[in-house]
């Protein structure tokens, strides 16, 4: 479904991703982990067609990623982006006008599930409210690939749980693949099929969550801690 | 509330254990319909693929059966459920007895203390 072939991305002289080759299967929920500056966001942006490789190629569904990949990929940014006076409903209509695949009925169902009222102005929502609304906008698109940059970052536990349950309720894994970056691996571990662990722009580890738990006899968070501790000793 | 999971075991296995317990306790009876994969995923806060794996494993063991277009059901084969109940009992017993023996208790002492314990508990 998603394929990176010898992908290197440099910003000026700074190497963000260093010769990465991997592919991701359809119908999975994949977590991209790593410290700040490890290349997580760049990894997502390359798949979203928001930045382009310095070397190598990225494919989604067999097509090389271009600026027009937006038709097959929904990208949920870590930042909030909306017009000041927009209500949730305005945003729904904006999305519907921009994306052929936007399912208005599904969007309303998700907002309802997430306890967001469409009449509210986006700027009047709490941080958690905006976090939930953003998820709803992305999930309502019937696209094969959903990319989420830190969807739970900075949100309180109740909101995180609502978002996780919303994702489980509304994602269609027969047709969709989710790739998300996260710091909160503890929170999303039960949601992930696979984890990809990045460090200094390279893939250090990649594993199926249940296999990893079985082999290492610890959670993904515990396993990550071991990796970091191992490094400190070296 | 999303369920808490033991960090040292695969999640699909822990959900299997929960389902097995419900069946053995007769909370889910022979022929009962299990929640759909999606319902179970939302209830437990777990990836639907993981629940699918749980259901496939249970089906492989003959504990549940999937009927096309209808869903997943607890087997109506009472023999399978009886065997499962026996197997779960054996697992718990062997852990318990091993632990007690490691503390130096004999089988007779273990039996006696079990009786005392259940009287004390009013079981």
UniProtKB/TrEMBL annotation, chain A:
Leader sequence residues: none
InterPro entries associated with the record: AAA+_ATPase, ABC_transporter-like_ATP-bd, P-loop_NTPase
One Gene Ontology term of the molecular function aspect: ATP binding
Pfam family, one: ABC_tran
Chain ranges of the ABC transporter domain: 2-225
PROSITE patterns in the cross-refs: ABC_TRANSPORTER_2
Keyword terms, alphabetized: ATP-binding, Nucleotide-binding
Name of this protein: ABC-2 type transport system ATP-binding protein
From TrEMBL, chain B:
UniProt keyword annotation of Protein transport present: no
Keywords assigned: DNA-binding, Transcription, Transcription regulation
Domain of life: Bacteria
One Pfam family per UniProt: GntR
The HTH gntR-type domain, residue ranges: 9-77
GO molecular function: DNA binding; DNA-binding transcription factor activity
InterPro entries xrefs: Tscrpt_reg_HTH_GntR (IPR000524), WH-like_DNA-bd_sf (IPR036388), WH_DNA-bd_sf (IPR036390)
PANTHER family: GNTR-FAMILY TRANSCRIPTIONAL REGULATOR, HTH-TYPE TRANSCRIPTIONAL REPRESSOR YTRA
Descriptive protein name: GntR family transcriptional regulator
């Amino acid at each position: 479904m998603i394929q990176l072939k010898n992908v290197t991305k440099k910003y000026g002289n700074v190497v963000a991703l260093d010769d990465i080759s991997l592919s991701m299967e359809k119908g999975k929920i994949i977590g991209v982990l790593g410290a700040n500056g490890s290349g997580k966001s760049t990894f997502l942006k390359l798949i979203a067609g928001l930045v382009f490789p310095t070397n190598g190629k990225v494919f989604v569904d067999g097509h090389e990623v271009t600026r027009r990949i937006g038709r097959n990929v929904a990208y949920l940014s870590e930042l909030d982006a909306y017009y000041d006076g927009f209500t949730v409903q305005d945003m729904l209509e904006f999305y519907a006008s921009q994306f052929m695949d936007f399912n208005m009925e599904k969007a309303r169902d998700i907002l309802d599930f997430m306890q967001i009222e469409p009449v509210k102005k986006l700027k009047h929502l709490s941080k958690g409210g905006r976090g939930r609304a953003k998820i709803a906008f992305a999930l309502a698109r019937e696209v094969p690939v959903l990319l989420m940059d830190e969807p739970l970052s900075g949100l309180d536990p109740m909101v995180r749980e609502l978002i996780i349950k919303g994702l489980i309720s509304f994602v269609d894994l027969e047709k969709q693949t989710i790739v998300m970056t996260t710091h909160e691996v503890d929170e999303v571990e039960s949601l992930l099929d696979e984890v990809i662990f990045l460090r200094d722009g390279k893939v250090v580890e990649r594993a199926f969550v249940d296999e990893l738990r079985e082999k290492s006899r610890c959670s993904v968070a515990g396993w990550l801690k071991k990796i970091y501790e191992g490094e400190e000793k070296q | 509330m999303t369920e808490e999971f033991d960090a040292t075991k695969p999640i699909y296995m822990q959900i299997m254990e929960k389902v097995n317990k419900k069946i053995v306790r007769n909370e889910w009876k022979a022929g009962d319909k299990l929640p759909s994969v999606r319902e179970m995923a939302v209830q437990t806060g777990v990836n639907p693929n993981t629940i699918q794996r749980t259901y496939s494993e249970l089906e492989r063991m003959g504990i549940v059966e999937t009927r096309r277009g209808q869903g997943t059901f607890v087997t109506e084969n009472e023999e399978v459920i009886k065997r499962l109940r026996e197997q779960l009992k054996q697992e718990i017993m062997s852990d318990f007895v091993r632990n007690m023996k490691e503390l130096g208790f004999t089988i007779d002492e273990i039996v006696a203390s079990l009786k005392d314990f259940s009287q004390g508990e009013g079981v």
